[in-house]
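[agent] plan:
  1. take the single chain provided in the ticket
  2. run structure prediction with default settings
  3. attach structure tokens to the ticket
  4. add a short note for the reviewer (M.T.)
[agent] executing step 1
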Amino acid sequence: MYLGLDLGTSGVKAMLMDADQNIIGSANGHLTVSRPQSGWSEQAPADWIRATEEAIAALKAAHPAELAAVKGIGLSGQMHGATLLDAADQVLRPCILWNDTRSYKEAAALDADPRFRALTGNIVFPGFTAPKLAWVKNNEPEIFAKVRKVLLPKDYLRLWLSGEHISEMSDSAGTSWLDTGKRAWSSELLAATDLDESQMPRLVEGTDKAGELRSELAAKWGMGANVVIAGGAGDNAASACGMGTVSEGAAFVSLGTSGVLFAANASYLPNPASAVHAFCHALPNTWHQMGVILSATDALNWHAGVTGKSAGELTTELGDTLHAPGPVTFLPYLSGERTPHNDAKIRGVFTGLGHESGRAALTQAVLEGVAFAFRDNLEALKSAGATVPRMTAIGGGSRSIYWLKAIATALDTPIDIPADGDFGAAFGAARLGLIAATGADPVAICTAPATEASIEPEAGLRDAFETAYQRYRAVYPAIAALNG
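[agent] step 2 finished; step 3 output follows
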């Protein structure tokens, strides 16, 4: 048996998987976020341990014999969090999370140093780890002076599980301290935030053995000796391992609250100017690119709130037959946009409204606007050298066949719909646990789920969608000038 632990923002998910990758069971432990000031987002690392204990206790109650047979544990977690430890491994302050924006000034200052984009391949975003340490130095100098180790959230769980300070490439690529091409800490970038390599965990690959479960925890959970802990992965890379998105050309599009276009790469392909994330993947000698749009299903949910109809009712009004884009254009920038604009101030807009523009026309424009935002992402990934021959759709919005047809046609890329199953980060983590414990071939283990259906681009509408996309592209510079 193999155990995947995914430390999310709202909870810890524990998933038990057998050697044939059948899911035996899963359980959750609850977490909350503390927001002591505007823009702040924190969690107490002790709560991560409590939630993990809760999830594993529930698994033990339901599957004691299977839990006792665990040979490998994989870890996945929310990225970018700054967990600060003193010389005795005591937590110095609550962890500053990925969605905390207090360090926006420090992030801008680091991003203005050309070494950061050159070595990390990414913009220094306020949510990344390095600017948070710069903020602590500026605002909590007595705490900064005591920092002996900085750990990412899942790696603090590893410290509790194994007693070791270890991280891996995919999660560490989100710190702004990793030389992403060389897959090693950059002493230069660490020095720019008044830190050095002794304050960082040792780095391994996500598929490597990275510690063993402490004997007292093994005894408590009824497990045997020598339970291997894998390097693991940041949450997006772990999800990609669960989806089988691990080899050159494999990609998925996630239609969640926000939208993600994730492509696996056999080489390092940065494009920070277009706000593409270029990170190490969890498998050796593999990288990935990620474009992010901040409002995907969020845009449709906003429209649903305004019209007083549910998202499902709105998409049902359009039917399943894809229409050519009408005169109405929608930009889904309701909370700014990440890829390709990196513009926090921009806001959404409808253009081309007429007396004839009814609710269905606006719904169609919202779905198309999100599809065109994904097209922007695809163009940004391709301009850095990515190849995306087809992609798999996941997330709640992928239940709308109309929306998937619009995305496939706007991107001129076939979309596969996976058969039902749980292919998320906890499953990917369990796969990494299996690989680390057995030495199995990562690509042979991290296979894609069965495909239930495939959606091809509609050739007859390709030109109409291309014309509408070019119109969409022209709107951003016009409204960006208004936003100042």
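[agent] step 4 note for reviewer: Residues 359-383 form the longest helix (25 residues).
[agent] ticket updated
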